[in-house]
Amino acid sequence: MATLAVGIDVGTSSIKAVALKRTGSGYSLKSVGQADIRRSEFHPEESPQSIAEAPLRALERVSQDSSFARKPCAFAVSGPRVAPRLFKFPSIPRSEVEQAIRFEAEQIIPFDLAQAALDFVLFDEVMEEGKPVMEGLVVAVHREEVDKRYVLLKSAGFDPVVLDIDALALSNAFCETEGVNERETVALINIGARFTNLSIMHGPRRSFVRDVATGGDMISRAISEIYGLDLPQAEKRKREASYTPLDDLEGGGSFDDGGGTTPGGTEGFGDTEGFQPVDEGNEEYVLLDSDETGFTSGDTMTDGDNFEASGQTQNGMNAAQRISANRAVLADALGDLISEIQDTFKYYINRRIIPRVDKVRLCGGTAKFPDIEEFFASQLGVPTELWNPFARLDVGGVANKYPPNFLDEMGPMMAVATGLAMRQL
Q1: Are 135 and 87 in contact (CB under 8 A)?
Q2: Is the pLDDT of residue 249 over 60?
Q3: What superfamily in CATH does domain 180-386 come from?
Protein backbone atom coordinates (compact mmCIF):
# COMPACT_ATOMS: atom_id res chain seq x y z
CA MET A 1 0.00 0.00 0.00
CA ALA A 2 1.65 3.20 -1.16
CA THR A 3 0.51 6.60 -0.04
CA LEU A 4 -1.08 8.65 -2.80
CA ALA A 5 0.73 11.97 -2.68
CA VAL A 6 -1.58 14.30 -4.61
CA GLY A 7 -5.20 15.33 -4.10
CA ILE A 8 -7.06 17.55 -6.60
CA ASP A 9 -10.32 19.20 -5.51
CA VAL A 10 -12.20 20.55 -8.54
CA GLY A 11 -14.72 22.95 -7.07
CA THR A 12 -17.26 25.26 -8.65
CA SER A 13 -15.23 28.43 -8.18
CA SER A 14 -11.65 27.22 -7.74
CA ILE A 15 -9.20 24.35 -8.08
CA LYS A 16 -7.41 23.23 -4.90
CA ALA A 17 -4.40 20.91 -4.93
CA VAL A 18 -2.33 19.39 -2.13
CA ALA A 19 0.81 17.26 -2.36
CA LEU A 20 1.84 15.33 0.77
CA LYS A 21 4.60 12.98 1.82
CA ARG A 22 3.96 10.38 4.47
CA THR A 23 6.51 10.38 7.31
CA GLY A 24 7.03 8.23 10.37
CA SER A 25 5.10 10.71 12.52
CA GLY A 26 2.38 11.71 10.06
CA TYR A 27 2.42 13.82 6.91
CA SER A 28 4.56 16.64 5.60
CA LEU A 29 3.24 19.20 3.15
CA LYS A 30 5.11 19.24 -0.17
CA SER A 31 3.07 21.80 -2.05
CA VAL A 32 -0.29 23.55 -2.18
CA GLY A 33 -1.91 25.07 -5.24
CA GLN A 34 -5.05 27.08 -5.91
CA ALA A 35 -6.52 28.79 -8.97
CA ASP A 36 -9.84 30.56 -9.38
CA ILE A 37 -12.34 29.47 -12.02
CA ARG A 38 -13.85 32.45 -13.82
CA ARG A 39 -17.64 32.11 -13.91
CA SER A 40 -20.19 33.89 -16.08
CA GLU A 41 -22.28 35.33 -13.23
CA PHE A 42 -19.25 37.06 -11.72
CA HIS A 43 -17.35 37.75 -14.97
CA PRO A 44 -20.01 38.77 -17.52
CA GLU A 45 -17.32 40.33 -19.71
CA GLU A 46 -15.92 36.88 -20.57
CA SER A 47 -16.99 35.10 -23.76
CA PRO A 48 -19.02 31.87 -23.53
CA GLN A 49 -16.05 29.93 -24.88
CA SER A 50 -13.72 31.43 -22.26
CA ILE A 51 -16.16 30.52 -19.49
CA ALA A 52 -16.50 26.96 -20.83
CA GLU A 53 -12.72 26.56 -20.81
CA ALA A 54 -12.22 28.20 -17.40
CA PRO A 55 -11.98 24.95 -15.34
CA LEU A 56 -9.34 23.56 -17.72
CA ARG A 57 -7.34 26.80 -17.64
CA ALA A 58 -7.43 26.84 -13.84
CA LEU A 59 -6.20 23.24 -13.71
CA GLU A 60 -3.42 24.07 -16.15
CA ARG A 61 -2.24 26.89 -13.89
CA VAL A 62 -2.08 24.48 -10.96
CA SER A 63 -0.29 21.85 -13.05
CA GLN A 64 2.60 24.25 -13.64
CA ASP A 65 3.80 23.15 -10.19
CA SER A 66 5.92 20.05 -10.79
CA SER A 67 4.62 18.56 -7.52
CA PHE A 68 1.26 17.99 -9.24
CA ALA A 69 1.78 17.57 -12.97
CA ARG A 70 1.70 13.99 -14.28
CA LYS A 71 1.59 12.59 -10.76
CA PRO A 72 -0.97 9.93 -9.75
CA CYS A 73 -3.75 11.82 -7.99
CA ALA A 74 -7.05 11.29 -6.27
CA PHE A 75 -10.07 13.34 -7.25
CA ALA A 76 -13.60 13.62 -5.94
CA VAL A 77 -17.12 14.49 -7.03
CA SER A 78 -20.19 15.81 -5.25
CA GLY A 79 -23.66 17.11 -6.00
CA PRO A 80 -26.96 15.70 -7.29
CA ARG A 81 -25.37 12.88 -9.34
CA VAL A 82 -23.69 11.45 -6.27
CA ALA A 83 -25.89 9.22 -4.12
CA PRO A 84 -24.54 8.07 -0.73
CA ARG A 85 -26.97 5.86 1.22
CA LEU A 86 -26.84 3.96 4.50
CA PHE A 87 -27.71 0.28 4.46
CA LYS A 88 -28.44 -2.25 7.16
CA PHE A 89 -29.23 -5.97 6.98
CA PRO A 90 -28.76 -9.10 9.11
CA SER A 91 -25.22 -10.37 9.36
CA ILE A 92 -24.26 -12.62 6.43
CA PRO A 93 -21.05 -14.36 5.26
CA ARG A 94 -18.48 -11.97 3.82
CA SER A 95 -18.57 -13.78 0.49
CA GLU A 96 -22.22 -12.71 0.06
CA VAL A 97 -21.82 -9.09 1.12
CA GLU A 98 -21.12 -7.52 -2.28
CA GLN A 99 -24.10 -9.16 -3.94
CA ALA A 100 -26.37 -8.19 -1.04
CA ILE A 101 -25.20 -4.57 -1.16
CA ARG A 102 -25.78 -4.34 -4.90
CA PHE A 103 -29.31 -5.66 -4.41
CA GLU A 104 -29.84 -3.13 -1.62
CA ALA A 105 -28.43 -0.32 -3.77
CA GLU A 106 -30.92 -1.07 -6.55
CA GLN A 107 -33.72 -0.29 -4.07
CA ILE A 108 -32.31 2.95 -2.68
CA ILE A 109 -30.15 4.60 -5.38
CA PRO A 110 -32.20 7.12 -7.44
CA PHE A 111 -30.72 6.29 -10.85
CA ASP A 112 -29.93 3.23 -12.97
CA LEU A 113 -26.98 1.34 -11.48
CA ALA A 114 -25.94 0.27 -14.99
CA GLN A 115 -24.89 3.92 -15.46
CA ALA A 116 -23.17 4.25 -12.11
CA ALA A 117 -19.83 3.60 -10.44
CA LEU A 118 -20.61 1.83 -7.17
CA ASP A 119 -18.59 1.27 -4.01
CA PHE A 120 -19.30 0.65 -0.34
CA VAL A 121 -17.75 0.59 3.11
CA LEU A 122 -18.80 -1.65 6.01
CA PHE A 123 -19.01 -0.29 9.53
CA ASP A 124 -18.49 -2.46 12.60
CA GLU A 125 -21.29 -4.93 13.25
CA VAL A 126 -23.83 -3.86 15.86
CA MET A 127 -26.32 -5.82 17.96
CA GLU A 128 -30.03 -5.16 17.56
CA GLU A 129 -32.53 -7.16 19.60
CA GLY A 130 -29.76 -9.61 20.41
CA LYS A 131 -28.86 -10.27 16.77
CA PRO A 132 -25.79 -9.07 14.80
CA VAL A 133 -26.54 -6.50 12.11
CA MET A 134 -24.30 -5.28 9.29
CA GLU A 135 -24.24 -1.54 8.66
CA GLY A 136 -22.44 0.48 6.04
CA LEU A 137 -22.45 3.18 3.42
CA VAL A 138 -22.93 2.58 -0.29
CA VAL A 139 -22.13 5.31 -2.80
CA ALA A 140 -23.21 5.48 -6.43
CA VAL A 141 -21.83 8.11 -8.81
CA HIS A 142 -23.24 8.60 -12.30
CA ARG A 143 -20.59 7.52 -14.80
CA GLU A 144 -21.05 10.65 -16.91
CA GLU A 145 -19.94 12.72 -13.92
CA VAL A 146 -16.88 10.52 -13.39
CA ASP A 147 -15.94 10.52 -17.07
CA LYS A 148 -16.30 14.29 -17.36
CA ARG A 149 -14.04 14.91 -14.37
CA TYR A 150 -11.50 12.28 -15.51
CA VAL A 151 -11.20 13.75 -19.01
CA LEU A 152 -10.83 17.27 -17.59
CA LEU A 153 -7.96 16.22 -15.32
CA LYS A 154 -6.19 14.23 -18.04
CA SER A 155 -6.48 17.17 -20.44
CA ALA A 156 -4.74 19.40 -17.89
CA GLY A 157 -1.81 17.00 -17.45
CA PHE A 158 -2.87 15.11 -14.32
CA ASP A 159 -2.99 11.35 -13.82
CA PRO A 160 -6.28 10.61 -11.99
CA VAL A 161 -6.24 7.11 -10.51
CA VAL A 162 -8.53 7.20 -7.44
CA LEU A 163 -12.14 8.38 -7.28
CA ASP A 164 -13.73 9.57 -4.02
CA ILE A 165 -16.56 11.84 -2.94
CA ASP A 166 -15.96 15.16 -1.22
CA ALA A 167 -17.66 14.31 2.07
CA LEU A 168 -15.68 11.09 2.56
CA ALA A 169 -12.44 12.89 1.72
CA LEU A 170 -13.30 15.29 4.57
CA SER A 171 -13.72 12.36 6.95
CA ASN A 172 -10.41 10.90 5.86
CA ALA A 173 -8.55 14.18 6.42
CA PHE A 174 -10.07 14.62 9.88
CA CYS A 175 -9.31 11.07 11.00
CA GLU A 176 -5.71 11.31 9.80
CA THR A 177 -5.01 14.74 11.31
CA GLU A 178 -7.27 15.05 14.36
CA GLY A 179 -8.58 11.59 15.16
CA VAL A 180 -12.04 10.72 16.49
CA ASN A 181 -12.63 8.67 19.63
CA GLU A 182 -15.31 6.01 19.90
CA ARG A 183 -17.61 8.13 22.07
CA GLU A 184 -17.39 11.34 20.06
CA THR A 185 -19.57 12.62 17.23
CA VAL A 186 -18.10 15.33 15.01
CA ALA A 187 -19.89 17.13 12.18
CA LEU A 188 -17.61 18.36 9.40
CA ILE A 189 -19.17 21.08 7.25
CA ASN A 190 -17.35 22.06 4.07
CA ILE A 191 -19.06 25.12 2.58
CA GLY A 192 -18.26 25.56 -1.08
CA ALA A 193 -19.66 27.95 -3.66
CA ARG A 194 -22.74 25.97 -4.75
CA PHE A 195 -22.67 22.87 -2.56
CA THR A 196 -22.03 22.16 1.10
CA ASN A 197 -20.60 18.76 2.07
CA LEU A 198 -21.68 17.38 5.44
CA SER A 199 -19.93 14.45 7.10
CA ILE A 200 -21.07 13.27 10.53
CA MET A 201 -18.47 11.04 12.14
CA HIS A 202 -19.44 8.83 15.07
CA GLY A 203 -16.17 7.25 16.08
CA PRO A 204 -13.38 6.66 13.55
CA ARG A 205 -15.18 4.02 11.47
CA ARG A 206 -18.71 5.39 10.97
CA SER A 207 -19.37 8.33 8.68
CA PHE A 208 -22.76 9.60 7.50
CA VAL A 209 -22.59 11.98 4.56
CA ARG A 210 -24.74 14.19 2.37
CA ASP A 211 -24.47 17.18 0.05
CA VAL A 212 -26.69 20.25 0.41
CA ALA A 213 -27.33 22.37 -2.68
CA THR A 214 -26.44 25.75 -1.22
CA GLY A 215 -23.22 27.53 -0.38
CA GLY A 216 -21.19 30.70 -0.54
CA ASP A 217 -22.80 31.96 -3.76
CA MET A 218 -25.81 32.79 -1.63
CA ILE A 219 -23.65 35.17 0.39
CA SER A 220 -22.81 37.11 -2.77
CA ARG A 221 -26.47 37.28 -3.71
CA ALA A 222 -27.44 38.48 -0.23
CA ILE A 223 -24.79 41.22 -0.32
CA SER A 224 -26.03 42.21 -3.77
CA GLU A 225 -29.63 42.52 -2.62
CA ILE A 226 -28.97 44.17 0.75
CA TYR A 227 -26.49 46.74 -0.54
CA GLY A 228 -27.71 47.27 -4.08
CA LEU A 229 -24.55 45.99 -5.75
CA ASP A 230 -24.27 43.99 -8.94
CA LEU A 231 -23.12 40.38 -8.52
CA PRO A 232 -19.48 40.91 -9.57
CA GLN A 233 -19.13 43.71 -6.99
CA ALA A 234 -20.87 41.63 -4.34
CA GLU A 235 -18.61 38.63 -4.97
CA LYS A 236 -15.53 40.84 -4.75
CA ARG A 237 -16.61 42.35 -1.44
CA LYS A 238 -17.49 38.94 -0.02
CA ARG A 239 -14.00 37.69 -0.74
CA GLU A 240 -12.40 40.79 0.74
CA ALA A 241 -14.48 40.43 3.91
CA SER A 242 -12.96 37.00 4.49
CA TYR A 243 -9.40 38.18 5.05
CA THR A 244 -9.20 41.99 5.13
CA PRO A 245 -10.53 44.49 7.71
CA LEU A 246 -13.22 46.35 5.78
CA ASP A 247 -15.40 49.41 6.43
CA ASP A 248 -19.20 49.31 6.39
CA LEU A 249 -20.91 50.46 3.23
CA GLU A 250 -22.72 53.66 4.17
CA GLY A 251 -26.44 53.79 3.61
CA GLY A 252 -26.77 50.10 2.95
CA GLY A 253 -29.51 47.91 4.32
CA SER A 254 -30.79 47.04 7.76
CA PHE A 255 -28.52 45.08 10.10
CA ASP A 256 -31.26 43.55 12.25
CA ASP A 257 -30.81 39.79 11.95
CA GLY A 258 -34.04 39.14 13.80
CA GLY A 259 -32.36 36.70 16.13
CA GLY A 260 -31.66 34.32 13.26
CA THR A 261 -28.28 33.30 12.03
CA THR A 262 -26.66 31.29 9.21
CA PRO A 263 -23.32 30.79 7.37
CA GLY A 264 -21.70 32.02 4.17
CA GLY A 265 -18.48 33.20 2.50
CA THR A 266 -15.91 32.96 -0.22
CA GLU A 267 -14.66 30.05 -2.26
CA GLY A 268 -11.06 30.81 -3.13
CA PHE A 269 -8.56 33.56 -2.45
CA GLY A 270 -7.00 33.79 -5.91
CA ASP A 271 -3.32 33.39 -6.60
CA THR A 272 -0.66 34.24 -4.02
CA GLU A 273 -0.21 37.74 -5.42
CA GLY A 274 -3.85 38.55 -4.70
CA PHE A 275 -3.57 37.53 -1.09
CA GLN A 276 -2.53 41.02 0.04
CA PRO A 277 -5.32 43.44 1.08
CA VAL A 278 -6.80 45.30 -1.86
CA ASP A 279 -6.17 49.03 -1.87
CA GLU A 280 -8.62 50.96 -4.00
CA GLY A 281 -8.24 54.46 -2.61
CA ASN A 282 -11.16 55.70 -0.55
CA GLU A 283 -13.62 53.06 -1.71
CA GLU A 284 -15.78 51.85 1.16
CA TYR A 285 -16.39 48.14 1.57
CA VAL A 286 -19.41 46.21 2.75
CA LEU A 287 -18.38 44.21 5.78
CA LEU A 288 -15.72 44.11 8.43
CA ASP A 289 -13.85 41.43 10.33
CA SER A 290 -14.92 41.35 13.97
CA ASP A 291 -13.02 43.55 16.39
CA GLU A 292 -12.56 42.29 19.93
CA THR A 293 -15.61 43.59 21.76
CA GLY A 294 -16.14 41.07 24.52
CA PHE A 295 -19.27 39.86 22.72
CA THR A 296 -20.30 36.22 22.67
CA SER A 297 -22.70 34.64 20.21
CA GLY A 298 -25.60 34.96 22.64
CA ASP A 299 -25.14 38.69 23.34
CA THR A 300 -27.59 41.20 21.88
CA MET A 301 -27.55 44.95 21.51
CA THR A 302 -30.44 47.39 21.49
CA ASP A 303 -29.33 51.02 21.35
CA GLY A 304 -26.35 53.26 21.96
CA ASP A 305 -27.38 54.17 25.54
CA ASN A 306 -27.44 50.55 26.65
CA PHE A 307 -24.11 49.98 24.98
CA GLU A 308 -22.45 52.91 26.74
CA ALA A 309 -23.92 51.80 30.05
CA SER A 310 -22.19 48.46 29.61
CA GLY A 311 -18.82 50.19 29.79
CA GLN A 312 -17.88 49.59 26.16
CA THR A 313 -16.35 52.27 23.93
CA GLN A 314 -17.78 53.81 20.80
CA ASN A 315 -15.27 51.74 18.82
CA GLY A 316 -16.86 48.68 20.38
CA MET A 317 -20.26 49.93 19.31
CA ASN A 318 -19.05 50.20 15.71
CA ALA A 319 -17.63 46.69 15.88
CA ALA A 320 -20.92 45.37 17.27
CA GLN A 321 -22.80 46.96 14.38
CA ARG A 322 -20.42 45.34 11.93
CA ILE A 323 -20.89 41.95 13.55
CA SER A 324 -24.64 42.45 13.22
CA ALA A 325 -24.18 43.37 9.56
CA ASN A 326 -22.24 40.17 8.90
CA ARG A 327 -24.87 38.06 10.61
CA ALA A 328 -27.69 39.79 8.76
CA VAL A 329 -26.06 38.68 5.51
CA LEU A 330 -25.49 35.17 6.85
CA ALA A 331 -29.08 34.81 8.02
CA ASP A 332 -30.46 36.07 4.73
CA ALA A 333 -28.19 33.89 2.62
CA LEU A 334 -27.94 30.53 4.36
CA GLY A 335 -30.93 30.02 6.59
CA ASP A 336 -31.91 27.06 4.42
CA LEU A 337 -28.48 25.47 4.97
CA ILE A 338 -28.84 25.73 8.74
CA SER A 339 -32.30 24.13 8.52
CA GLU A 340 -30.96 21.26 6.41
CA ILE A 341 -28.12 20.62 8.85
CA GLN A 342 -30.48 20.75 11.84
CA ASP A 343 -32.84 18.28 10.15
CA THR A 344 -29.93 15.96 9.40
CA PHE A 345 -28.78 16.02 13.02
CA LYS A 346 -32.34 15.28 14.20
CA TYR A 347 -32.71 12.41 11.72
CA TYR A 348 -29.67 10.52 13.00
CA ILE A 349 -30.33 11.31 16.66
CA ASN A 350 -34.03 10.35 16.55
CA ARG A 351 -33.16 7.02 14.94
CA ARG A 352 -30.51 6.41 17.60
CA ILE A 353 -27.80 6.18 14.95
CA ILE A 354 -25.82 8.79 16.90
CA PRO A 355 -26.44 9.93 20.50
CA ARG A 356 -25.76 13.62 19.81
CA VAL A 357 -23.40 15.93 17.92
CA ASP A 358 -20.50 16.93 20.18
CA LYS A 359 -18.77 19.49 17.98
CA VAL A 360 -18.85 21.11 14.56
CA ARG A 361 -15.81 21.88 12.44
CA LEU A 362 -16.19 24.31 9.53
CA CYS A 363 -14.03 24.36 6.41
CA GLY A 364 -14.19 25.48 2.81
CA GLY A 365 -13.61 28.96 1.43
CA THR A 366 -16.89 30.22 2.90
CA ALA A 367 -15.79 29.21 6.40
CA LYS A 368 -13.43 32.22 6.40
CA PHE A 369 -16.36 34.65 6.38
CA PRO A 370 -16.38 36.89 9.51
CA ASP A 371 -18.43 35.71 12.54
CA ILE A 372 -19.47 32.47 10.90
CA GLU A 373 -18.23 30.25 13.75
CA GLU A 374 -20.29 32.09 16.35
CA PHE A 375 -23.22 32.10 13.97
CA PHE A 376 -23.20 28.31 13.50
CA ALA A 377 -22.69 27.73 17.21
CA SER A 378 -25.70 29.87 18.12
CA GLN A 379 -27.96 28.27 15.52
CA LEU A 380 -26.95 24.64 15.95
CA GLY A 381 -26.35 24.75 19.69
CA VAL A 382 -23.06 22.91 19.21
CA PRO A 383 -19.50 24.20 19.84
CA THR A 384 -18.16 25.27 16.46
CA GLU A 385 -14.63 26.03 15.28
CA LEU A 386 -12.83 26.68 12.03
CA TRP A 387 -10.89 23.60 10.96
CA ASN A 388 -7.46 23.94 9.35
CA PRO A 389 -6.03 20.50 8.45
CA PHE A 390 -2.63 22.08 7.76
CA ALA A 391 -2.29 22.79 11.49
CA ARG A 392 -1.54 19.10 12.05
CA LEU A 393 0.88 18.69 9.15
CA ASP A 394 4.61 19.26 9.07
CA VAL A 395 4.88 22.43 6.98
CA GLY A 396 8.46 23.33 7.90
CA GLY A 397 9.82 22.31 4.52
CA VAL A 398 7.58 24.72 2.58
CA ALA A 399 6.93 27.52 5.07
CA ASN A 400 9.41 29.86 3.35
CA LYS A 401 7.84 29.18 -0.04
CA TYR A 402 4.71 31.21 0.74
CA PRO A 403 3.89 34.64 2.24
CA PRO A 404 3.44 34.89 6.04
CA ASN A 405 0.17 33.34 7.27
CA PHE A 406 -0.61 32.05 3.77
CA LEU A 407 -0.92 28.41 4.85
CA ASP A 408 -3.10 29.36 7.82
CA GLU A 409 -5.43 31.27 5.52
CA MET A 410 -5.51 28.62 2.81
CA GLY A 411 -5.73 25.56 5.07
CA PRO A 412 -9.50 25.58 5.74
CA MET A 413 -10.31 25.58 2.03
CA MET A 414 -7.91 22.67 1.40
CA ALA A 415 -9.64 20.05 3.57
CA VAL A 416 -11.04 17.96 0.69
CA ALA A 417 -7.78 18.10 -1.29
CA THR A 418 -5.85 17.12 1.86
CA GLY A 419 -8.10 14.12 2.48
CA LEU A 420 -7.68 13.04 -1.14
CA ALA A 421 -3.89 13.28 -0.91
CA MET A 422 -4.04 10.91 2.09
CA ARG A 423 -5.82 8.17 0.13
CA GLN A 424 -3.85 4.96 -0.36
CA LEU A 425 -3.39 2.70 -3.38
Answers
A1: yes
A2: no
A3: ATPase, nucleotide binding domain (3.30.420.40)
